[in-house]
């Protein structure tokens, strides 16, 4: 059987081909799945999609009409999938429920320290042989307070690094993580965490209840010199409100690996044509902001685990097996 994989990065292609070798043929495309590219999948029973694929109702209808029966998404998040429509169309949808939490947690810290110590500005200067220190003043994180919003596997990994730095730890989640408590984390209300933290990192999924969890009111509660990091999902932050606060001169630094309107931008080369997203264009002009293109997960370890899980999801579908990775059909209510 030949499997069609959308949105495959050049680094991923040999890994995907090797993982499926001896089992199935795989056709790798660098284009992303959306309304325009969905017809390409006609005749393919199984397709694999990337994190920013458009799997809304219209795309799913096109896939089903073309004969697709199984979608293996190569990511953990599934806010881009209309699960109700998929269920109605009898499409099997599976995801990668977990992969290396260290990839994202370590990258979140990379962003935090890069904005704190002005690494981008410093590196740009030295390329021009400008070795002044003006404007490069950072601060120790030791002894300061880290607020971790979401303390699952990735949040826990981030917390362990914060503990290693010797930081005070505040956490907020629907349930406490005993491993974080053992590190000295104090669970508090979200409002208290926002008000008292010197560094805030977001590690919750994007759900209706978490959409714009960091909005105008939440941003107003934060310290003027806070460091804010988001390596989870762009929709957690109201970017327009964030730009307003940045224009007012607030925040020591902001590190964003995700953006709420990243579809159609991230993973693509827009350097020649530019972009018409005024909010993103304004955001990247602030000297205390770093925006990267959803690369926190992008390590050999994590990508390898994602691909291996995708291969197993395909094998489970063909064998009629079910796993915790399956989103559709939904598990019956107990």
Automatic annotation (TrEMBL):
InterPro entries associated with the record? D-isomer_2_OHA_DH_cat_dom, D-isomer_DH_CS, D-isomer_DH_CS1, D-isomer_DH_NAD-bd, D-LDH-like, NAD(P)-bd_dom_sf
* GO molecular function ontology, one term from the record: NAD binding
Which residues belong to any copy of the D-isomer specific 2-hydroxyacid dehydrogenase NAD-binding domain?
110-296
Query: Where would I find the D-isomer specific 2-hydroxyacid dehydrogenase catalytic domain in this sequence?
Result: 8-327
- Write one Pfam family the protein is assigned to: 2-Hacid_dh_C
User: What keywords does the record list, in alphabetical order?
Assistant: NAD, Oxidoreductase
Family per record = Belongs to the D-isomer specific 2-hydroxyacid dehydrogenase family.
Q: What is this protein called?
A: D-lactate dehydrogenase
Source organism (scientific name): Streptomyces atratus
